[in-house]
Amino acid sequence: MVKNILVTGAAGRIGACLADGLPEYGHTLRLLDKVAIDRAGHEVVVCDVTDAKALEGAMDGVTAVVHLAGIPSTSASFERLLTANIEGTYRVFEAARLAGVERVVYASSNHAAGFTPRQESAPAGTPVAPDSHYGVSKAYGEALGRFYSDRYGMRVASLRIGSFRDRPKSPRELSTWISHGDMVRLTHACLTSPDLTYAAVWGVSANTRSWWDPAAGLALGYEPRDDAEAYAEGMPELDPADPEYAYAGGRVVEL
Ligand code: 15L
């Protein structure tokens, strides 16, 4: 069982969800963000993920990292992504390697493959086809994870996260939604699976209308419990020609 986990970008929505949910699985968390986090019961580190020296200290005693820090916006400019997503992700992997951390769970995004035409059940290993500079930055993080796994034997999971919400808010999200509970279950599986070497895994709930093959997650012990179908009533029908539904990344392909 993994015990000491560094969560970067912990002030964000997914960070808050994991800070609530992972302790139930026996994990002890160190929450890192560039803004102060007021959360009782967790150790907190305030630093930027581009600060190599500060990261060195933050990795002390850590057995796994959940790397969430970065700009989450699909319309972010290259300049902003360069620092936060490209340099920051490199600094985190490198600090983890230098500290002997054995496992990294990396928050990638469906937008790393967002230009993939929508299909019934796209495999988790669907080739990179970014739909935005944001998607490109996530593809870079996946490549970095694969490199650290192949070169240094780090166990790395790249989560191609769909739509992380309380509940699905649009017809697309009936396919792409991941619930809070499933986000915790997926992360826990990736933090503990003895079978993980490198894997790209769709971050999605057990949605009846999912576009993504759950096999890679299941192989690591992820057992999603939620289904967006419970919220389908009253949602408009999908128009298959609308880019929102024609591509994995939805309307982002047009931004
Ligand atoms: C993401 O990766 C984004 O961070 C989020 O803002 C949404 O666009 C989400 O994907 C999605 O595809 O719904």
From TrEMBL:
Q: Which family does it belong to?
A: Belongs to the NAD(P)-dependent epimerase/dehydratase family.
The reply on keyword NAD is yes
UniProt keywords, alphabetically = NAD, Oxidoreductase
Domain NAD-dependent epimerase/dehydratase, residue spans: 5-162
Entries under Gene3D superfamilies matching the protein = NAD(P)-binding Rossmann-like Domain
The species is Sphaerisporangium corydalis
Q: Say which domain of life the source belongs to.
A: Bacteria
Matching InterPro entries: Epimerase_deHydtase (IPR001509), NAD(P)-bd_dom_sf (IPR036291), Sc_DH/Rdtase_CS (IPR020904)
Q: What name does UniProt use for this protein?
A: NAD-dependent epimerase/dehydratase family protein
Q: Which residues cross the membrane?
A: none
In its keyword annotation, does this UniProt entry include NAD?
yes
